[in-house]
Each structure stands twice: as C-alpha cells, then as structure tokens.
Amino acid sequence: MTWVLLRGLMREQRHWGSFTQQFAQAHPHERIITLDFAGNGALYQQASATSIGAMVEQARGQLQQKQIEGNIKLLAISLGGMVAVAWAERYPHELQRLVLINTSLAPHNPFYQRLRPANYPTIISTMLTGTQRQREQLILRLTSHQSDTANAERLLDDWISYAQQYPIRRHNILRQLVAAMRYRAPAQAPQVPLLMLAGAKDALVNPQCSTTLATRWQTELRIHPDAGHDLPLDDPDWVIRQTLG
C-alpha cells in the first residue's frame, strides 16, 4: 500500500516539512510518496497544467515511473484535494482511500467561500508583483497560525530558500489558478472511502466549504478547533491521528 501526499497551489513537496517523516513513522508498513505538480518544486521549469485532469495524469505518470499503479491512498490539501477528487472520479479502482484537507470545490462551494474576498487585493498584488519574501510571508500569514510563533522566521527562511532554488514563474501561478477555477467536481461523492479534515480558523478558505461538501456527499468531516488552512503544519500529530482511524 502506498500513501501519496499532494500539496496545493504554488507549493512543493518540501513544504510538507517534518510532517512527511512523522507520517512515515506512524505508517511503518506503507510506502510514503510526495509529488510535485509541473511548475512547482523540482519541476519548476515545466509549464503548469491548466486543468485539474491534466494534473491527475501528471501525478499518475510520476507514480508509473516508480512502478506504482494501484493500492494508493491519497492525502491531499487544498488544490491537491481537487486533483484527488478528479483522480477518484477517473480511476476509482486505483485508490483505496482519500483524505482531503481544507478542500473547496465548485459548483458545491461559492467563490466567496472558496477564497475569502477580503484577501483578493493583497493576494493578487503580492503574488504577481511582490518579492519572494513578501509572497512567502503572505502565504504563511494566510495559511498557518505559525506566523505568530517563534518558529515563523525559520519557516520563512526555509520557504524562501525553496523559492530561490526552484522559483515558480508568474505564468505558472496563473496557469494553476486557471486550473483551479475551471474545475467542476462531480455531483456525487467519489466511489472511494473518503475522510474530510478542516481547520476551523482557516483564514484563506472558509471552513464552511468542507461542511457543505461533507453534508452533500454524506461523508465524515473532522474539524480542528484551532488550526488554519495548512493543517499538517499547524498540528501534524492531529492530522496523522485522523489517518490512523
């Protein structure tokens, strides 16, 4: 059995930080794979896909290169959650389980919940014209409660280092945004065992998105009372415990 971890918009596998090692220790008999989408991380020189379906095929292609073609569990956050749902819709026989973290999906969730309107001007200006430090500072502030801790500077230094080594290009940011905006999730829940996780204090995406999805799809939702959008960063132990249940 293989767990595949999928990150979100503009993020790469190194943004899992120590979570990957902690997750592996909790799942000692399962293989743990982290992937980058084209345009991110080690694949930063490639053009990002402009559809979620294409991202599914890219991820599957990477696994096939590792000779992994089934018995897969997906742990996915944000944009990665869209890829996970589309994967389950196309290839349910390949998947054993989905764990979706702070995912929002059209047409089930309105745009003003999928990205809080108060953030629009800052996100647009910073992502397209800001420096690497300004961009990473904004992402940390919007996605995690770690921005107010002693750990914040170390995190920022790490993230800026990633961005300098594998700089994401502005046109790839736009291509990933286009993919997210174009995607329409199925009316019915994926035909794969599904667990949804959400942070009650998500400053980027309204947690009502997860509540609505769980109700419509009649699936289990577990809400962390204090975490933000990047749940694996804010409380990795809590996330890992949910995957063991």
UniProtKB/TrEMBL annotation:
Matches recorded under Gene3D superfamilies: alpha/beta hydrolase
Keywords, in A-Z order: Hydrolase
GO MF entries: hydrolase activity
UniProt domain Serine aminopeptidase S33: residue ranges: 48-234
Top-level lineage group: Bacteria
Pfam family, one: Hydrolase_4
Keyword Hydrolase: yes
Matches recorded under PANTHER family: SI:DKEY-122A22.2
Stated name of the protein: Alpha/beta hydrolase
